[in-house]
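COMPLEX REQUEST
Ligand: copper (II) ion
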Amino acid sequence: MNDPQGPLSRSIADLYWIMFAAAVVVLAIVVGALVVAGIRFRERPGHQARQYHGNNLLELIWTVIPTLMVISFSVLSFQKLAYVNDVDSGAAMTIKAEGKQWVWGFQYPADAKFKLSDGSYLKAAEELHVPAGQKIKLELSAVDVIHAFYVPKLGGQKDAVPGRTTTMWIQADRPGRYVGQCIEFCGTGHADMLITVVAQNPAEYAAWQEAAVRQANLFNDPAVATGKQLYTTLACAGCHTVQGLTGGKVGPELTHLMSQKTPIGGIAGLDVNEANLVKWVGNAPGLKPGVVMPAFSKAYGGPLDDAQILSIVKFLETLK
Ligand code: HEC
Ligand SMILES: [Cu+2]
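STATUS: Structure written out below.
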């Protein structure tokens, strides 16, 4: 909150600092007067402390000034509330954020850009991508208990309540990663219920959105399901680990295969991509004589046809 990175959080912080400054001034005056009075009017040799009963001027001052202060704070707050609650005007897009023990899920708008091959629209968890410099409306809901959305640098906080929809908005001045947190205690995993908002400039945003849709479509591809089925039922499972799926120890772990920088089998030039994976799974010994991984392509005496190999590779491509 003391490092606002967008118009909404800045406007909230501004109001906060005005109130804080006023509170500091009041504190200084009250404590100052207390100290001065304590020293000046104390009982001491040659000075007799006196009892006062009422002082109209003083009482007027300390009634009128605080009243005026409270009224001006109220006016400022109500003005600000109108700005904070205006989620619609000028909003570039609406994203649904759903709180669930203990993760935030994000549903991107029903816009052609976010459309997936199965007709649904892009979804993600924990990380929310937004265009920098644009107002984003959030529609909050909750599945189980009350959660609250809060990314301090980009906006205020708002509860996500089961059974209803609440709205808020966020905006980032500049590209960057902004961290936030569920701010309503929601159970044992509450502290892990993190939010990362990634604000990007238009070109980066378009690139991310295209890649995210492509990646999500991989999972919608029926070939991926077939490939996963083949991978788990064939010998692959006995030799390779994919976390959460298989635990083989003979070959290298494949959990993050697609993020791997080294080429397949360590063979120079055989970078990890679809075409090379098809070759490798089809006929590993042909590419690396002596390797224990057998050839899987029928063409090399294995059990699988080209379509089956391609679907295994489609599944491997989901391992990021
Ligand atoms: C008998 C054990 C065995 C079986 C069965 C097996 N592999 Fe392998 N696999 C290996 C070994 C060992 C390597 C490492 C080869 C090397 O780098 O020399 C490997 C390498 C790989 C690689 C390249 C990994 C990398 O980082 O270089 C992929 C991808 C792969 N296997 C996928 C599969 C798939 C898919 C199947 C099932 C269709 C399968 N493997 C079946 C043992 C096996
Ligand atoms: Cu929560």
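REMARKS: Residues 99, 102, 147, 182, 184, 186, 190, 193 surround copper (II) ion (ligand 2) (CB under 6 Å). The chain has a mean pLDDT of 92.
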